[in-house]
Amino acid sequence: MNLLTQQPALAGETLGERLQSRGVSRRDFLEFCGRLAVVLGLGELAGPRLAHALQSVRRPSVIWIQLQECTGCVESVLRTVEPTIGNLLLEMVSLDYSHTIMAAAGHQAEAALQKAMQDNAGKYLLIVTGSIPLADGGVYTTIGGRTAKAVLEEAAHGAAAIVAVGACAHWGSVQAARPNPTGAVGVSEVIKDKPVINVTGCPPIGDVVTATVAHFLTFNRLPATDSDGRPLFAYGKRIHDQCPRRAHFDAGQYVEVFDDENARKGWCLYHVGCKGPATFSPCPIFQWNGGTSWPIGAGHPCIGCTERNFWDTMSPFYDRLPDVGGFGVERTVDIMGAALAIGATAGVAAHAIATGVHQARLRRQLPVIPDGKE
Amino acid sequence: MAATKVVVDPITRIEGHLRIEAQAEGGRITNAWAHSTQFRGIEIVMQGRDPRDAWAFTQRICGVCTVVHAVASCRAVEDALDITIPPNANLIRNLIHGMQFIQDHVIHFYHLHALDWVDVISALSADPAGTARIAKSISPWPNNSETYFKAVQDRVKQFASGGQLGIFTNGYWGHPAYKLPAEVNLLAVAHYLEALDWQRDVIRVHTIFGGKNPHPNFLVGGMASAINLDGTATINAEKLIDIQGMIRRARVFVEQVYWPDLVAIAGFYKDWAAIGGGVPNFLAVGEFPQGDVRDIEKLYFPRGIILDKDLSKVHPYDHKLVKEYITSSWYQYAGGDGVGLHPWEGETKPVYSGPKPPYEFLQDQQKYTWMKAPRYEGKPMQVGPLSRMLVAYASGHEGAKELVGAALGKLNVGPAALFSTLGRTAARGIETVLLARQMEVWFGQLIDRIKSGDTRTFEKSKWEPSSWPATAEGYGYLDAPRGALGHWVQIANGKISRYQCVVPSTWNCSPRDGQGQMGPYEAALTDHHPLLKPDEPLEILRTIHSFDPCMSCGVHVLDATGAPIVEVKVQ
Fold first, then answer.
1. Cβ–Cβ gap A68/B456 under 8 Å
2. Is there a single domain that holds both residue A86 and residue A215?
3. Domain range spanning residue A255?
């Protein structure tokens, strides 16, 4: 979205040159790269390498197709908060197709898609939001008279890699909840011959999407994932292990009913249904809308929306998760975690990084909006 | 001369999947069809669920108007369980929903609708000093300087000179229907970019009260965000001041950027005040409770119906007079296609009878869309900002009268101009100004309540299912940014036994009914509607975007035994 505020590369121009022409100092850029390196789990020392890669990359084509969905994932990326440098991240790409914001419609839109696919065959990054309804010959979503499956298969054919954004593209989400009336599935159920990464959530945090794209453009490969295809830099840690209310869980201090005295003290939401102990998510680290808050921070239990099948496995949302032990009986929680994801690493280091990133984001300047004259 | 068949699919810059087909002859549209081409079936998914979870499921109907289904769902369940939420919770919901309106309408204007009126490429040849002069003459906004507009223009010049136009590829640049001077085009392009930054700031009201946006969290019985001025993890003074700042920045941007831009641009397109009127009936269910949600006399935007463009009378609305038809929709009724059914009797079964994809045309099909055709006493209805402002204007709403009068005066047109494509776009701006001001009133009321010692945000007496009756049913209305919305829920033994929504885009995107009456999109496209170049359907986009379509699909579903499980038409 922030592409709109960007300039494309001139022929042969690199990102570094573009930044300079836009008055962004090298110091700002390096600082950003250092922060991004931490977010991506590479450690701060990888910052210079990231900076070098970003500056060398030409502006590649990105094609964004929207299938069976609610558009919430597009809106989430619209909220990405990197007022200057985050925009530059997106500036590295040329967004050649996007239903929600492109000027052209109808056959002019389809022509833009065809041209981008031909001109960048084998090289473009494909972003997909929405699921693919396979029941009844695919009649439950058509675009330009063609099924969602046909649109996806064609776009995937020449893609270098695919970023499946949101729970719908990951596994089908709400329309795939029991009994899945339209036979909705995620991207990786349809496309088997391309790398697919699942930036999941309902919706995911916009900044996680842009960080994943940056990773691909920098290293020419997708970031490492867990067994469900989710990038570890964002989904490698369990909410429960990063939660600012964790101390209250360990101390047995729980909200028993909403708006009780304990809620007003900010105690743990486990007894009112929090799914944090079973959910791997970047929420506590990245937070939402520029570090403003996150669901637990606003007093509502996590509903587990980054987990496959959460509409069925995590509901009723206000029922207590079974078998989550308290202080000193952590084993149950750890077993549950091990079953849910591979690759969760040591909690102490993770927490240190998470805290650092969290604080960095809080310090980050929010968009400068003129107050205007009264 | 034979009519030219026109297909526009995908309609871009909307929510969801919409296809428009038309026939054009001699520069005019002679016939039109609106096709919804997505179905998700969320309604059937909801059967047997905990009614306290319903808001989260229905919220995912739409990620653009991301709070409206959640709030309507909470209201429906609260109505069923006879829950009265605390006044603080109602004020917080008003602040969240009010900011949804404001942010959504501004995004719609600049990022979804503007490119129908604004030629981005033309802005390259503008004189930035001229843009600054125009801008200063209509607004005190601080960025109205030549230097500022020059910087924006340079940025766009570099963009265009690179040859990679990205999202602007294949736009209708240079089309003769673009009428703005280059300087005004530059003004709009600059604010297109500014609005992107603005929207992600002000929407954080949702994040503070609901934890995130899109899809903030809600709660049956109130809100989950507890208030404690001395807490670190609660709504405290720091957070309230942050919100106050957002509310102020929202109002200032709306008053100094959005509204002046809208009036300035509209001045160059006055011919569109006589184009695209279409269906002459307007329905508003009313919104923003300023007391108990059931007290419709205290709604900030009033409830009512305008018939046949007659502003001298506001008719009452009774939901029992709504019936739905499937003559043109991919469904079957046991009683045949000729009958109309009230939603409570909703007996519906999706049966796709269109051509096998890929297909070329749908306009020769008897049934051509997933949308049903709701009718009020047999009449099609427009819903949305224009309906709300007409009902408010005709009801004597002081703010609406003042702003509608001022807009008509500035454009030097009479009230008849409201019934048009331009009227829908102007009404959206008018209600945004009203809400941007009213937000400060609601925020002040919340502060006063906290000052007086009332920090309650949740009514807990009916939270546990053991406190519920064996069966219950409830209705939750809500007038969303795109128009009238209703959720109906039936609860049996603590679970949802039936759930139903009737949503704005079903009214507006409805197909022909058994009487052959077109829905509002179709009727608007055939009402004195130009189409200069059938292969560049710019004018179609103008009128369709003036409704702000939100398509995420509409469906009614039966279970295997033929009994209605649940019905939803989705915005």
1. no
2. yes
3. 236-363
* pLDDT over 70 (residue A364): no
Average confidence (pLDDT) over A122-144: 94
The last residue of a domain, from among A234, A261, A291: A234
Which residues in chain B have their CB less than 8 angstroms from residue A4's CB?
111, 167, 192-193, 196
The C-alpha of B109 sits at a distance from chain A's nearest C-alpha, in angstroms, of 12
Q: Which phi and psi angles does B212 have, rounded to 5°?
A: -170, 165
**Residue B22: CB atoms within 10 Å:** 25
Taking only residues 164 to 193 of chain A, the set having a beta carbon closer than 8 angstroms to any beta carbon of chain B reads 173-175, 177-182, 184
Cα dist from B392 to B312, B385, B389, B427, B431, whole Å: 12, 10, 5, 11, 10
DSSP letters spanning A29-56: HHHHHHHHHHHTTS-GGGHHHHHHHHHH
Delimit the domains of chain B by residue range.
Answer: 4-569
CA pair distance B175, B170, nearest whole angstrom: 12
ipTM tops the 0.90 cut: yes
CATH of domain B4-569: 1.10.645.10
3-state DSSP assignment of residue B327: coil
CA B167 to chain centre: 23
> Which CATH number characterizes residue A325's domain?
4.10.480.10
pLDDT in tens, B231-242: 999 999 999 999
B81-122 pLDDT, tens digit per residue, is 999 999 999 999 999 999 999 999 999 999 999 999 999 999
The string of pLDDT tens digits covering residues B269-311 is 999 999 999 999 999 999 999 999 999 999 999 999 999 999 9
- pTM of the full predicted structure? 0.89
Pair type for strands A61-66 and A94-98? parallel
The answer to whether the beta carbons of residues B40 and B553 sit under 8 Å apart is yes
Residue with tokens 């473009």: A124
B309 min Cα distance to partner chain A (Å): 32
Using the beta-carbon criterion (under 8 Å), do A83 and B115 form an inter-chain contact? no
CB B373 within 8 A of CB B324: yes
pLDDT at A217: 80
Tokens of B346: 């909703």
Q: What is the CA radius of gyration of chain B?
A: 24
Q: State the number of CA atoms in the 13 A half-sphere of A321 facing the CB.
A: 23
Residue A370 has pLDDT above 50, yes or no: no
